[in-house]
Specification:
The protein has about 350 residues and is an alpha/beta fold. Helices cover about 35% and strands about 20% of the residues. The protein contains 12 helices and 15 strands. The structure holds guanosine-5'-monophosphate (5GP). The site of guanosine-5'-monophosphate has 25 residues, from strand 11.
């Protein structure tokens, strides 16, 4: 047994130290970024916040809205040719769409079918809960060999060594996060995980050294956390829970005591397994939960709120653009980040 003594941090363990700034207004902050990816050589421009490939979030109607802000949506694995054909303006929004695939044979066949029909889609997100298996790296390599010009996202991992391994296997972008998600129970079921801000800082450093990018995936509870992800060095921040509960996600609406709620569940919850695979195999346990989120209306209001928060973070630390945010970031460790006197 070995114990690592140095402290690893979550978003809630830090705050940005404010810095003298010449910025006049937060409206002057530019949130747009342009990236060229290591292997695909594709260039992408937009606001690097992504919707997670979860039911109720990684959906076409969410993508339509996010694309207006030049933000990417990772569609769920269930988006097949038939479903995508229903999206009438797919040729307008495709630069901001990613297709998801697991390592199962039928997932990969679906990806191949979709890419035959919609070969203009540029992002492939190879997504498994645990990106540490040798089999996974080999799979990433085989997808890279088959699709040399696609931008490949692969994850999830939380450490520098495996970030490098996935990049060297052909990933342009590594997805970082094990256990921080709003509907994730991995830490309870397995005791495995890594505090998200430290994972982002360490994996970003590893990926950037190889000319690759990372996504900070999961654990954001408020716009300040999104900014902290970027401040820590993330190239993209992916949101599940913060984008859930809206009309466009088409989740199940339930009413209780006159209030409206929308059901939202983890991708490896019982609910998701029942819906997509007819239940859990008996050697596995669920590592996700279902929650009821207060109905939040249109997603555009939430997007504006998040972008307003991130712009404001940039002005507080003197960053004229999102690109400069991590260079302008000094985090201070805190034991209390929020005054909750009047909450609940
Ligand atoms: P959130 O933004 O809701 O905090 O986190 C979203 C991320 O949680 C997703 O992108 C995905 O990586 C992760 N996630 C989604 N569903 C599950 C699940 O059922 N179990 C686990 N362990 N993680 C999940």
């Amino acid at each position: 047994m070995r114990l690592e003594e140095d402290i690893k941090l979550d978003y809630s363990d830090v705050l940005f130290r404010p810095k003298r700034s010449t910025l006049k207004s937060r409206k002057d902050v530019n949130l747009k970024r342009t990236y060229r990816f290591k292997y695909s050589k594709n260039e992408w421009s937009g606001i690097p916040i992504m919707a997670a490939n979860m039911d109720g979030v990684g959906e076409i109607d969410i993508a339509q809205n996010l694309a207006e802000f030049e933000m990417i949506t990772c569609l769920t694995k269930q988006h097949d040719v038939r479903k995508l054909k229903k999206c009438k303006n797919i040729k307008d929004i495709y630069p901001h769409l990613a297709l998801s695939v697991g390592i199962k044979k039928e997932d990969f066949e679906n990806l191949n079918d979709v890419l035959k029909e919609f070969n203009f889609i540029k992002f492939i997100c190879i997504d498994v809960a645990n990106g540490y298996s040798e089999h996974f790296s080999k799979f990433v390599k085989s997808v890279r060999d088959k699709y040399p010009t696609k931008t490949i996202i692969a994850g999830n991992v939380v450490t520098a060594d495996m970030t490098q391994e996935l990049v060297l296997s052909g990933a342009d972008i590594v997805k970082v996060g094990i256990g921080p998600g709003s509907v994730c129970t991995t830490r309870i079921q397995t005791g495995v995980g890594y505090p998200q801000l430290s994972a982002v800082i360490e994996c970003a450093d590893a990926a950037h050294g190889l000319g690759a990018h990372i996504i900070a995936d999961g654990g954001c509870t408020c716009p300040g956390d999104v900014a902290k992800g970027f401040g820590g060095g993330a190239d993209f921040v992916m949101l599940g829970g913060m984008f859930a509960g809206h009309d466009e996600g088409k989740g199940k609406l339930v009413k209780k005591n006159g209030e409206k709620f929308i059901e939202f569940y983890g991708s490896s919850s019982d609910q998701a397994n029942k819906k997509h695979y007819g239940g859990l195999s008996n050697y596995r346990s669920s590592e996700g939960r279902m929650v009821r989120i207060k109905y939040r209306g249109k997603i555009k209001n939430t997007i504006h709120n998040i972008l307003g928060g991130v712009r404001s973070s940039c002005t507080y630390v003197g960053a004229p653009s999102l690109k400069q945010l991590s260079k302008c970031t000094t985090f201070v460790r805190v034991s209390n980040q929020y005054n909750e006197t009047f909450i609940k």
